[in-house]
UniProtKB/TrEMBL annotation:
<keyword id="KW-0862">Zinc</keyword>
<dbReference type="InterPro" id="IPR011011">
    <property type="entry name" value="Znf_FYVE_PHD"/>
</dbReference>
<feature type="compositionally biased region" description="Low complexity">
    <location>
        <begin position="38"/>
        <end position="53"/>
    </location>
</feature>
<protein>
    <recommendedName>
        <fullName>FYVE-type domain-containing protein</fullName>
    </recommendedName>
</protein>
<dbReference type="Pfam" id="PF01363">
    <property type="entry name" value="FYVE"/>
</dbReference>
<feature type="domain" description="FYVE-type">
    <location>
        <begin position="350"/>
        <end position="411"/>
    </location>
</feature>
<dbReference type="InterPro" id="IPR017455">
    <property type="entry name" value="Znf_FYVE-rel"/>
</dbReference>
<feature type="region of interest" description="Disordered">
    <location>
        <begin position="1"/>
        <end position="61"/>
    </location>
</feature>
<keyword id="KW-0479">Metal-binding</keyword>
<dbReference type="InterPro" id="IPR000306">
    <property type="entry name" value="Znf_FYVE"/>
</dbReference>
<dbReference type="Pfam" id="PF01590">
    <property type="entry name" value="GAF"/>
</dbReference>
<keyword id="KW-0863">Zinc-finger</keyword>
<dbReference type="InterPro" id="IPR003018">
    <property type="entry name" value="GAF"/>
</dbReference>
<dbReference type="InterPro" id="IPR013083">
    <property type="entry name" value="Znf_RING/FYVE/PHD"/>
</dbReference>
<dbReference type="GO" id="GO:0008270">
    <property type="term" value="F:zinc ion binding"/>
</dbReference>
<feature type="compositionally biased region" description="Polar residues">
    <location>
        <begin position="13"/>
        <end position="22"/>
    </location>
</feature>
<dbReference type="InterPro" id="IPR029016">
    <property type="entry name" value="GAF-like_dom_sf"/>
</dbReference>
Length: 713
């Protein structure tokens, strides 16, 4: 790779070597090591420390050490001045409008640079530059999740979205560890400090379809440097300068393909190498706005013509196509927003509306109408559009038909914390190898509470232990003879209100508290793939408008069961409060509640937060309105992005960004309420957490039924 930069308005010269290689040339600022000099160092930084099964050290993926990669990336980043893109006022240096696409506009220009080696010889070279600029209505973190990738799948998904059929495939060859770069936190994680900067360096490749007919395809090996600067609000008492904006910078610079061992096409007769090309993105959050400003800049230094390298015309065409790809960023951001939604299963329920839900047009038998994939209702022929939806599990882009009302709610969500890995079907994750089972963690929590509590709280802990220990084992959970024998011995002592504290501790130590582990294939979630009921959107998403509360098919039977149980008259619920404390600790959440959902409101019966007990919310403003729709647990990893929950008071009052709810059933298995956990940050649910929540929800239902029976006796 040529290490020479031209004297242009954007890139500063980093070397002054003459065209004839004279001895009076100035040295490099940062000297790039050759392949022969850096092979030894690269073995320690670019490959795993473990050896292969035959004892041989695997080949390095990159023949350049990490320190050198960081130095090169830093050099290119410092030379790329996005603030000076206006350049010179000379006519030959002005930007020429190329095309406009949506909110983005692309420009191009060609500048001549002159390098003098001796007094008798002058050689003129030219530089091709492209520019794309526009604004996107989104959070800056959404663009960060798109542009910054660390896996082959994410890299290929983004490149395919930006360059469509022009892109063939690519690879993430190597990611420099964060301790080498100098920033410990990961780039895509929001930091807690007021002001922070994180940097990530990676080596990637990309193969493109030929830009000229009958020409070979094109391959680019490049070094990528991503830097995220989280700004700080200015102090009104200090006026030391303007506030730093929340920004993200991505710089790309060409690498010699000989410096890469993997991730590239080895047959050079089929591909031409893209060379001498540098590009970059600058993304800034506009202060006081929901928009981000995106600037893409690319530059190619001409003058090099060697076999195996792309020609000058190919480089110019590829540079322009890279700029055109940047204009598709809004489309990639939008399709990921639709991937974060739970679409309606239109085969599970019929659409019954006789008027268009958007414009109220009458939908007669012969009227052309279509069903919205998101809300599930009929809309007229003018009130829908086809959108793209990206899902992680299917690994493809799916077209969906969405009405105008649903589109407004999708655009209104907060997607700053939605990562590509969370798009698509929800699933319970397998526990890490070193993760303790739910039985041990719950027993440890109960022992700690029993020893530390006193008075009424200690009585509540003892009662909860009775419910959990004396509760019958799950019939569906298969057990070996050894497990059954151990449980029989442990259950030989049945706890009562007269049992001593030491007897409670002994029972916990013997393993009498058993949480049956639910097999992973039985960890079923409601609406994991699609939603089996419609939602009715309000006319607009502004002013905190929320969809109407859905009604289950057995709503009448459910309300009758609540009335018969007289659960709303329950006053002493200290055992429910203790169960909520256990659930919050088990899932690592801040809030846990036990609720009952009536015809028009949701009431909190118990909680680990004293301020939430006996609090009521309108049914349409609660999470639990959707939990009682089925007998399966409901998991919502990003309610701030979901059109069902983004505006409800139950979410906005505490900035809830994670919800998990397990139904609470009556004696006849009718769902009357829910056992929930909520937090201000998103979580993944593991198999042990699912098993623990299922057991605790069953105990909560038993507590409610037992208290009601005791009141009537």
């Amino acid at each position: 790779m040529s290490s020479r930069y031209t004297d242009t308005p954007l890139l500063e010269r980093t070397t002054s070597t003459g065209t004839n290689g004279s001895a009076d040339a100035k040295p490099h600022r940062i000297r790039f090591r050759s392949k022969a000099r850096s092979t030894t160092a690269s073995l320690s930084s670019s490959i795993p420390s473990s050896t292969s099964s035959n004892g041989l050290v695997p080949k390095p993926r990159v023949h350049v050490n990490d320190d050198e990669l960081c130095a090169r990336a830093e050099t290119v980043a410092r030379a790329m001045d996005f603030r000076g893109l206006a350049g010179s006022n000379e006519p030959e240096s002005r930007w020429v409008l190329k095309k406009s696409r949506g909110t983005f506009t692309t420009y191009g220009r060609r500048t001549d640079t002159t390098a003098t080696a001796t007094a008798s010889r002058v050689k003129t070279r030219w530089t091709q530059q492209v520019l794309a600029a526009g604004e996107i209505r989104c959070h800056l973190q959404e663009v960060v999740h798109v542009l910054n990738t660390t896996s082959d799948f994410d890299h290929n998904a983004v490149m395919s979205g930006l360059y469509r059929k022009d892109f063939i495939y690519g690879a993430v060859v190597h990611v420099v560890p964060s301790d080498v770069v100098g920033d410990e936190p990961k780039l895509v994680e929001l930091l807690t400090e007021e002001e922070s900067t994180t940097t990530q360096v990676a080596v990637k490749t990309g193969t493109f379809v030929h830009s000229r007919m009958f020409a070979p395809n094109e391959q680019w090996c490049f070094l990528e440097r991503a830097q995220h600067v989280r700004g700080v609000k200015p102090d009104p008492l200090e006026s030391s300068g303007p506030a730093k904006l929340n920004s993200f910078t991505l710089t790309l610079s060409s690498l010699d393909d000989k410096e890469l061992e993997a991730g590239k096409v080895n047959g050079h007769s089929r591909v031409n190498m893209l060379h001498g090309m540098n590009a970059g993105y600058l993304v800034e959050q506009i202060p006081g706005s929901k928009y981000v400003r995106v600037i893409f800049f690319g530059q190619f230094d001409g003058g090099v013509d060697k076999p195996g390298l792309a020609s000058t015309s190919q480089m110019r065409a590829r540079l322009q196509r890279l700029a055109n790809g940047a204009t598709r960023l809004p489309e990639v951001v939008r399709r990921r927003r639709f991937g974060a939604q739970t679409m309606a299963d239109r085969a599970a329920f019929p659409a019954k509306n006789s008027y268009c839900i958007c414009c109220t047009k009458s939908l007669h038998l012969l009227t052309r109408k279509h069903r919205c994939h998101l809300c599930g209702h009929y809309v007229c022929d003018r009130c829908w559009s086809v959108q793209e939806m990206e899902t992680q599990n299917t690994r493809r882009i799916t077209p969906v038909r969405v009405c105008t009302r649903c589109i407004e709610f999708v655009e209104n969500g907060d997607y700053s914390a939605v990562k590509p890995s969370s798009l698509g079907n929800l699933e319970v994750k397998r526990d890490p190898v070193d993760n303790p089972p739910a039985t041990k963690t719950l027993a440890h929590l109960l022992r700690r509470e029993l020893r530390a509590s006193s008075g009424a709280r200690k009585d509540s802990v003892r009662t909860v232990i009775q419910y959990l220990v004396n509760q019958e084992a799950e019939v569906e959970q298969a057990k070996t003879e050894r497990q059954a024998k151990a449980e029989t011995e442990a259950r030989s002592i049945r706890l009562t209100s007269d049992s001593t504290e030491q007897e409670y501790l002994d029972v916990l130590d013997r393993g009498a508290l058993n949480v049956p582990e639910v097999p992973l294939y039985k960890c079923i979630l409601a609406n994991a793939a699609k939603r089996n009921y419609p939602i009715t959107m309000p006319k607009t998403a502004v002013n905190g408008s929320v969809p109407d509360a859905p009604m289950p098919l057995d709503e009448k039977e459910r309300l009758d069961a609540i009335a018969r149980s007289r659960i709303m008259e329950l006053e002493d619920a200290s055992e429910l409060d203790m169960l909520c404390s256990l659930a919050a600790s088990q899932l690592g959440c801040n809030i846990s509640i036990v609720t009952v959902v009536t015809a028009d409101q949701m009431t909190v019966l118990g909680s680990n937060k004293e301020d939430l007990r006996r609090v009521s919310l309108p049914r349409e403003h609660s999470f639990c309105q959707h939990t009682v729709m089925t007998s399966k647990p409901l998991l919502v990893p990003h309610p701030e992005a979901d059109v069902r929950f983004q505006n409800i008071n139950g979410r906005t009052a505490f900035d809830v960004r994670f919800y998990c709810g397990f139904p609470i059933v009556n004696d006849d298995n009718t769902v009357i309420g829910s056992f929930c956990c909520m937090d201000q940050k998103t979580h993944e649910m593991t198999q042990s957490q699912y098993s623990a929540m299922k057991r605790l929800a069953s105990a909560a239902g038993q507590v409610v039924r037992s208290k009601n029976r005791n009141r009537f006796e």
